[in-house]
C-alpha cells in the first residue's frame, strides 16, 4: 500500500510503499491487550512490602497467661489481631512480570502499526531533521496538527530533533528498536520517518 510522505514543514516528499503484512492487518484487540498487559506488568516495580509478625518490633513474650483470665488465648503482641502487629498475607517484594513469546510480541507490534494505519493516524515524514530550536519545531508541529504524537526514527534518533522536542508537550521520539505497542497506542498520531519504516520492516519480517 502507498502512503504520501511529507516534510516537517508540511511540503510533499513523494510516497512510500508499506508492507501489507505489517501495516495492512486487521487489528485484533485481544492481541494488543495481551502485549500491553505484558509491557505494563514488566514495568511494575513490585517493591511494595509490609512487615510480618516476625519483623515487627514488639517483645515476643506471651502477653498474659493462657488460662484463667477470661480473655482470648494470645501469644505475643506481634499477632496480626493487635494494632502495630504484623500484617497477615500482605504484599511482599516480587516481580509482576510474565513471559510472552517473541513471535507474539512481534505480532502485537504489527497489529499496533496496522491499527494506526486503519484509523488514519499514521504519518510518514522524509526525516526528522530540524535546526534544533524548540520554538521552530513547536510551530511546525502545531501547523501539522499533532497534539499527542510519537515519532519513530531509524536505528538512532536525530539529536537535533531530540534536543528541540524535549520541551514540547505531547511530542516524543524513539529509535526503531524502541518502538513498542503501549507507546504507539497511547498517542493520537504515529509519525514514522522513511528510515524508521525501513528499519521496522527489517525488524518485523
Please render the helix and strand layout as text.
Layout: E1 2-6, E2 12-17, H1 20-23, H2 29-43, H3 102-118, E3 122-125, H4 134-144, E4 149-152, H5 159-165, E5 171-174, H6 181-185, E6 189-193, H7 194-204
Parallel strand pairs: 1-3, 3-6, 4-5, 4-6
Antiparallel strand pairs: 1-2
Helix pairs in contact: 2-3, 4-5
Explain the overall architecture:
Helices cover 34% and strands 14% of the residues. The protein has helices spanning 20-23, 29-43, 102-118, 134-144, 159-165, 181-185, 194-204; strands spanning 2-6, 12-17, 122-125, 149-152, 171-174, 189-193. The chain has two domains: 2-45 and 97-204, 3-Layer(aba) Sandwich (Ribosomal Protein L4, Chain: A), CATH 3.40.1370; 50-90, no CATH class. Strand 4 (149-152), helix 5 and strand 5 (171-174) form a beta-alpha-beta unit. The longest helix has 17 residues, at 102-118. The protein has 205 residues and is of the alpha/beta class. Belongs to the universal ribosomal protein uL4 family. It comes from Roseovarius albus. Part of the 50S ribosomal subunit.
DSSP strand content: 5-15%
Rg: 27 Å
Q: How many individual helices?
A: 7
Please give the domain count. Answer: 2
The computed structural class is alpha/beta
The CATH homologous superfamily name of the largest domain equals Ribosomal protein L4/L1
Tell me the number of strands.
Answer: 6
Main sheet specs: 6 strands, mixed
Residue stretches low in confidence (pLDDT < 50, at least 5 long) are none
